[in-house]
Protein: Penicillin-binding protein 1A
Amino acid sequence: MNRRRKRKLHLFRLLLFMLLLLFVVGGSAALVLLALSIKDLPAWNEDKLLSSASTLIYDQNEKLIARVGEENRVPVELRNIPEQVQEAFLAVEDVRFYQHHGVDLRGIARAAWTDITGRGLHEGASTITQQLVRLSFLGPEKTFKRKIQEVILAIMVERRYTKQEILQMYLNKIYFGAGAYGIQSAAETYFDKPASQLNLTEGALLAGLLQAPSLYDPFQNPEGAITRRNMVLDNMARYGFITPAQAARAKDVKLEDILKEGKRQQYPYPFFVDYVTEKLVDTYGTERVFKGGLKVYTTLDPRIQEVAEKVMSNPRNFPASVRDKKGVLQPQAAVVVLDPHTGYIRAIVGGREHTHRLQWNWATTPPGRQPGSTFKPIIAYGPAIDYKGMAPASVIDDIPVKYGSYSPSNYDGRFHGLVTMRTAIARSINIPAVKVLMDQVGIADAIKFARGLGINLDPNNHGPSIALGGLNEGVTPLQMAAAYAAFDNQGIYLEPTAITRVEDPDGTVVYQYEPKPYQAMKPTTAYLITDMLKTVITNGTGTRANIGRPAAGKTGTTDDIKDIWFAGYTPELVGVVWIGYAPAKPMPQQYGGLYPAIIWNQIMSEALKGMPVRDFPRPAGIVSATVDSKSGLLPGPNTPPSDMVTDLFAQGTVPTRTDNTHVLVEVCAATGQLPNQYCPERVTRVMIKLPYSVPSFVEDYGQRVPTTVCTLHTAENAGGPPVAGHPAQPAAPPGQQPPVVPGQPEAPGQPGQPGKKPPPTNLPATRPDNP
Structure:
């Protein structure tokens, strides 16, 4: 049998064949990629090297209010920039700038080695010329195709311009952060001087910003800015631009000795413009926003914005500043005003003043702060009405209660007894809100309701204190304004927006706001909450917000008094005001019904000036009924006229049962306790009988059926035989009830302890709201 001899595998030949195959395939792919890159090469336009189109921002009337990008760019000639400052940029961005022809292979290798070893200052592999063409012609995409185009364009630029011209265009175009484009604007922004007067340490600091302007911002991150500046100085010494001694002296310069205060407002309505710019950058990227020539149409109402800024700049509208280890600390503040029917943001003020030192916009930047009692309508009362059919006249017993280890308390230390929901909201009583949340709604449904109002909370991280605004995440004034807007808008929630339309420079619409209304609650729920919140302003904790026209609102003060709020609205506008220290610290004797309500009043009064007065529209399905204010049921045969209250209900939720809590009780005429056989006189009173007892310090204790038997009359002092039908009773503590006129029923509502005044029905304007 003939056997074919097996051919031995030659490993070297196989490897050679694979390398040749890879070379052919790779070369072909490279040629194809090169051809595609050249085919799609951006059109040459020298104007793009010299300038870029700024983004234009317009108000609600399509009037130009700001330019983002070009406005803060002032060209400067290279000869007016100190040589050491130029060298600082070369040392960190392109040390062989004057030796290469647009692309630096040695620089690429050096940057790769630095990345691998992690030693020394990170230097980009792109030359200054490559960066210039990337800024002028190309986008931020990092692809092989873009890199090839970048190299081709860089070589073209090097052939057309001198090195000095290229460096000048680069320094006038690059972004330095804080809205500053070009070295002249950067010098003014950070040091309040022209570029011609920059010194070595200032130039090194600016050169260090380019890698990440926001990260190394000296106003917000001074430590990072110093570290980066010193690394630039080390590079300059390494490459021979300066001596080590010069670098050491420049490092000794402190930031506070060279940075300006940063308080100059460089454009109108800065908080609103900053918010819009932030949203644009999130969507379109920095390059397109700051040099793409977008036209942005916003919801800004300049008149309301100016009013808000003026009110917020008045120091008399805020608690006094305090002194700590770092110096004088003044309370921060924020306000948001929006249209409830469109979701359009009309004004934003995110702080007492607009400076580079602000770490965030207090009005819009998460995670926000604790909302205190302004959260009650969102988390407790709103879902109670919407899901459980409760109403303003529903009754909650304000008595001591405990849920696990949590025992809520009221701001005034009192327990008011049986109160309606309307009274609890108007007087901002804590315990009823917690009881409604835990006993009627449940945390899961409450969080579901809040989610419908744009506030997302984790049900696993919250307990009973959420009823009083005890949140792990916190909320911003913008979130609160959007949530309250749904109460104002017949239950319809709209996500707030500041941008209505975005266009490219040629007029092509790239974004058009399309509202997505969501029915977050029944219209009747929204109206009932609104009607109760009107009571807060007319005779509750928010009387300082009374502007003489229909308005609804809620005060808020956190338990530790670190945050105070007022959230309010009229049929036309919603406004939310927050005040607090940063970092958070207590503000003794402050509450939401004071300065926040005053600020809200001043802004809304001016914003609505000249508008016709109108009330909140009443939706179908709202009815009126008279009920017993101690049980929430229909008046029964024993309900006294003083305990009858007429209030509003959603149709179908009016109670059908009659009151059975008011009962006729015979008591000792002298002590008000249950009579024993020795009591000489007895009277019949209308009292409240419930299946549980309450402590004597509850303020309506005297209106409830007594649980003790008369201890005043005994066999020794009775002066006569026992009264028939009343066997002797054991002694009890001294009497708890006030005396009444024999034979006359007691008017309900009398206090339960002698000498104690009944609780007020209306609160004065100075009464604080509860935490």
